[in-house]
Every structure is written in structure tokens, then in C-alpha cells.
Design brief:
Blueprint: H1 2-18, H2 24-61
Length: 64
């Protein structure tokens, strides 16, 4: 039980005193970058899906 308590105390100490947490400005900038990147990636995937779907529809219509 003492080992578990020691591990817990060390973990709390590390999180409070040794970890370098980002500032709110850094966190906001990172979140905006992730949001914009996700939207761009989703747009690219949507365009590819639409183009390939249309191409396959055209290809299948040739053999009806």
C-alpha cells in the first residue's frame, strides 16, 4: 500500500511542479490550428469522395 501511495504522491508532484503547461494563448493557437486543419482535411476528403463517386457512376453508366 505504501508503494501505491508513494507512486501517487510522485505523480501529483510531477504534474504540479515538473510539467510545463502551455499558456492560454498557446493553447488557443493550437486549438485553432487543429480546427482549421481538420476542416481542410475534411474538405479534401469530401472532394475526393465526390469526384471518385461521380467517376464511378459515369463508368457504371457505360455498361448499362
Amino acid at each position: 500500500m505504501e508503494k501505491l501511495r508513494n507512486m501517487w504522491n510522485q505523480s501529483v508532484d510531477e504534474l504540479l511542479n515538473k510539467v510545463t503547461w502551455p499558456t492560454w494563448d498557446e493553447l488557443r493557437e493550437s486549438a485553432i490550428i487543429v480546427l482549421v486543419s481538420s476542416v481542410v482535411f475534411a474538405g479534401v476528403v469530401w472532394i475526393l469522395d465526390y469526384a471518385l463517386g461521380s467517376g464511378l457512376d459515369f463508368f457504371y453508366s457505360l455498361f448499362k
